[in-house]
Design a protein that fits this description.
It is a single chain. About 20% of the residues lie in helices and about 50% in strands. It contains two helices and four strands. The chain has a four-stranded antiparallel β-sheet.
C-alpha cells in the first residue's frame, strides 16, 4: 500500500528515516500517491553548517484528486560537504485533508 492509502495513516511518510534505503522508499511512495504542482523557496538563512529554507509547496493526491498548498520550512545541517541532518515542517492538517 502506498502512502496515504486507506490502510495507512494519511501522513505515514512524515516520520524519521535512519538510512538512505528508508528515505528512497519514502520518496517512491510519496511520488506514487502525490503529484507535485510546485515547490518554491522564498528565503534561505545560513549560519555555520546550518541552512534554513522557507517557502511553500503544492501537491495533488492521486487517489482523492484533492490539492493542497502549504507553507514549508526545511532545516539542513552539512558536514564535510554532505547533508547529515534534515527536518521539514509543513501544515499537516492540509496534507491529511487532501489525502482523505
Amino acid at each position: 500500500m502506498g502512502i496515504g492509502s486507506s490502510r495507512e495513516a494519511p501522513l505515514a511518510f512524515a516520520r524519521q528515516y535512519n538510512n538512505r534505503e528508508e528515505l528512497k522508499a519514502c520518496f517512491n511512495g510519496l511520488l506514487s500517491d502525490w503529484s507535485m504542482i510546485n515547490y518554491t523557496i522564498d528565503e534561505y538563512v545560513a549560519q555555520g553548517d546550518a541552512v534554513f529554507a522557507r517557502g511553500s509547496t503544492s501537491w495533488i493526491n492521486k487517489k482523492t484528486g484533492k490539492a493542497m498548498d502549504t507553507p514549508k520550512v526545511d532545516f539542513w545541517r552539512f558536514r564535510n560537504g554532505k547533508a547529515v541532518e534534515f527536518y521539514e515542517y509543513f501544515d499537516t492538517a492540509y496534507v491529511a485533508a487532501a489525502a482523505t
